[in-house]
Amino acid sequence: MKKTDSVKAFHLRFGSHQLVEPFKQFIEKVLAPKGINQLIIECNTSFVFEKHPEITEGTLTKQDAREIADVCKRHGIRVIPLFQCLGHQGWGGAPNSLLKAYPEFDETPHIPLDAKWPDFFCRSWCPLHPEINALAFDLLGEIIDAFDADAMHVGMDEVYALADDQCPRCKGKERGELFAKAINDLHGYLVKERGVQMYMWADRLNDSEATGYNRWEGDTFGTHKAISAIPTDIVLMDWHYDPLDSYPSIGIFLEKGFSVIPSCWYKTEAAVDFLKESKRQAVETSEPDRLLGMAVTSWNGWNQEAFEKFIHLTSSSFTREEELGELDELYRTLDVITKELS
Ligand SMILES: [Zn+2]
């Protein structure tokens, strides 16, 4: 990893017109001073789509996106919008707006609306439905245009509803092949047609057996086989939020030719350990420069209070050893990791 141009990324879910002003303040007063240079904005179906208003279930407008992008540009921050593709089309059995508007795209329409984990995680769209890509590309295209983005994150973590026995198109098919097809279709649009860089979460590409990862951080159903059937110009964001004995996926992805951004959450010591171990593995591979940096992810609901809290915290607010609540610790991790990468 080249220290001077390391990726220092921050991820958050954001889709609210009402919170655009505090969000802009958060970018200017927290993220930019900390040296964050990539901002992954997960807007999903909260974006106000003009071509597909039936998909919109939030309030983030095209104008909001442009204003946020302008603030980021002024501070040298690359904006990478995120729209969850394939999986995470709702929560539990409850469909999101996309599957409500187009129930024919649902991979598992037979699952009850009130299904809950551990019976069912969440819905996916069917990667073989002949009309899904046209819709997905419209949505991704609108978001890219609104943020004037040169990269797009397609999500694709935790996809468990795939190759369902009752899907007339996918029944009996290899999960790895279906997952690769979905990735390659999106790559065809984003990279080949639109000329933007493609990012995705890496958990479904980790072979749980080979890496020792659990079923969340790794795959136990066969999607990992897609790794040898997808382009290596996709940036893989490999997330591990708790300290592990080892993180072998970093070396595996680098050796296969991918660029990787290890991604942590709020736990400071876990993040520091993961970064240190990633750097060690990068040095052992022939292409250490493809370990791009690190991303700090956040999974709390951001509201005015949370943005303001961060604006008022400083590097000296906490010691490294102190026990903290999630938001305080997230701030400390952001502070520590950006310093480690500078
Ligand atoms: Zn299907």
From TrEMBL:
Per UniProt, the keywords (alphabetical) are: Hydrolase
InterPro entries from the xrefs? Answer: GH, Glyco_hydro_20_cat, HEXDC-like
Q: Where is the Glycoside hydrolase family 20 catalytic domain?
A: 54-302
Q: Gene3D superfamilies annotated for this entry?
A: Glycosidases (3.20.20.80)
Q: Which domain of life is it from?
A: Bacteria
Question: Hydrolase: present as a keyword of the record?
Answer: yes
For this chain, the family text in UniProt reads: Belongs to the glycosyl hydrolase 20 family.
What is the recorded name of this protein? Answer: Glycoside hydrolase family 20 catalytic domain-containing protein
